[in-house]
Amino acid sequence: MLNIFFNTLIFVICCAIGYYHAHDYRCRVVNLQSFLNGLKNLEDEILYRKTPLPEAMKVISEEKANHAAKELFSKVSEDLIGKSNCSFIESWIKYTEELGESCSFTTEDIYTINELGKGLGGTDVHGQSTVIQRKTARGSC
Q1: Digit-coded pLDDT (tens) for 7-49
Q2: How wide is the angle at C-alpha 37 spanned by C-alphas 90 and 46, nearest 5°?
Q3: How far is 34 from 29, CA to CA, in rounded Å?
Q4: What is the C-alpha to C-alpha distance for residues 34 and 65, in angstroms, rounded to an integer?
Q5: Strand, coil or helix: what is 62?
Q6: Of 19, 89, 98, 119, which one has the fewest beta carbons inside 10 Å?
Q7: pLDDT, tens digit, for every residue of 79-129?
């Protein structure tokens, strides 16, 4: 009887641990998908409406983005529009690091997002579009 109790207890504990770890993976997938959708919306705003990057990020964070993209775009646009002394890339990297803590992103995800920011901050409209298309086509974020 005691053996059955302990086996059941071990089973329940293992299930709870599995659900806990699965929650992190689910959050990561949702946040990565949200980020990809935010990037596609950002590309549309930049390419077709000809909105400058800081303003486009603000519009997307307020109207179309959710989860990870909303948080990152909002903070970066506030830095750039608020005339802080940060460059786009500095602001992007700073807030990407914070994003990794809250969104269950892996180190590789953060590295890829940082590389994306370097491409966005250092090119013109068509270059930004190309960078976004390259990242979203592979589905790697």
Answers
A1: 999 999 999 999 888 887 888 888 888 888 888 888 888 888 8
A2: 60
A3: 8
A4: 7
A5: helix
A6: 19
A7: 888 777 778 888 888 888 887 777 778 888 888 888 888 887 777 777 777
